[in-house]
Write a structure and sequence with these properties.
heterodimer; A: about 280 residues; mainly alpha; MetI-like fold; 12 helices; flat; B: about 260 residues; alpha/beta; Rossmann fold; 2 domains; six-stranded mixed β-sheet; 10 strands; globular
Amino acid sequence: MVDIADKHSDTAAPQEAPERRPLPRWMITCASIVAVLIFWEIVGRQINPVFGSYPAAIAVAFWELLVTGQLWAALFESLQPFLLGYGLAIVIGVPLGLLIGGFRVAEAALGIYVTAGYAMPLVALVPLLILWLGLGFAVKVAVVFLMALFPITINTWLGVTAVPKTLIEVGKSFVAPDLVILRRIVLPATLPYIMAGVRLAVGRAVVAMVIAEFFTTISGLGAVIINSANNFDTAAMFVPIIILMLMAIGLNWLIGWVERKVAPWQAEISGRDRE
Amino acid sequence: MGEVSFVEVSKRFTLRVDNEVHHVQALDRVSFSVRDGEIVALIGPSGCGKTTALRVAMGLDSSTSGRVTVDGREIKGCGHDRGMVFQHAELLPWLSAMQNVMFGLEMKGMRGEPLRVTAEKYLELVGLSGSKNRRPHQLSGGMKQRVGIARALAIDPSVLLMDEPFGALDAQTRESLQAELLDIHARTKKTILFVTHDLDEAVLIADRIVVMKEGRVAEVMTVPLTRPRPDLSIVRGLPEFAGTRYKVWRALHDDEKTVH
């Protein structure tokens, strides 16, 4: 205690007095990652390698999968249905949300399916989807699409209902047709909600992709997980899991970047543009 | 041209408060008119129906009975013959000042070079040429409302409708915008119908004042001040200003009988 008090009185001298800048975000994030990895390494090494693994072993497994080319092939195979299904969910989900939020009739007629669809136990429906679409590429796209569609649609819908009435009246007072109000006022005002939905959908789409690879033709990163698990190679099993999580982080970052490009006023208003 | 007439305009709506249904008579056979080039202030306590009257004139609300005519034509919904200035400016936050002014013009069908030139002309009229590329959140309250005025004026409406346009501004900004509005009026000769709850503002700016109470027109007064009124600080010192201000104040407090 004495020590702390002494240090404090020492450093309270002129040099430290001016502005103390807060630590940059990336530095806090990196410190957090390092701490978690160290903890995992220490605890993981105590566990039987069949039941658990640790960063160093996973790194070795990663390297092995990388040099054999297995990892690239699996990733490439997974990305195709993922990107197509996710892209389709955005292209269809956003207009659908705008439609449901913007028009009373559409809300009454379709809203209930979207709300129900969000809670749909998709895994249970996979066998049915297989009967319809087979075991190949199409069914994987469909599973990703169905999982990602609903958060995007629901968020867009919510966003439309949150648009201030007065902004719509501005459009009306200048005699803007309904579709012009939807495109030039409702859509930009809803963008932050849409982007939040697109972000939420990333996580669900990644999960959907792995589900699809488990339950239809075993392929891609999902296959690496299953095959490693079947061989009790827990370290190798973690490699695709970590890659998927990294992919989700990367996509999230990309979406954030796109958001700042298409809706720069939002970051400016909330004051987050200076970070 | 720009002449507005309210003819026996009534509006009723029902309000549900805790399962009780209330019928509100927002407007009760409101009749008055605004002559071409005139500035008329609608004043009254909150809930007297002044904003509703303005919204009916704009076409944002409909009346239950009666009609509003602009230059003799009965209005049916919104139209380019009327320009609305909203209480809190209501600029589109993703557009620059210039783009906000252009928005109204585009809705009128203007494109290309004339669009840009017209928008710039009206931004200059409100003294904002230097800030045309700023987004609303980079503008002060007074500047925002200037853009709001430019946006409404740019479509060259017959009538400018203003809903407590300076009510949310600080006293100093309000005074400079009042002077500027009079200057703009002197230059454009627009008919202006504006809603306010500020006695001074009504007397300083208007040619006539319509006092509203409980949905009815209580009194219409003529302000005995000449135009132009280039210096409002002088106007404030005139006995006509004080006299009219007192008359309006009395009209607003008429039902509270003074006890001597």
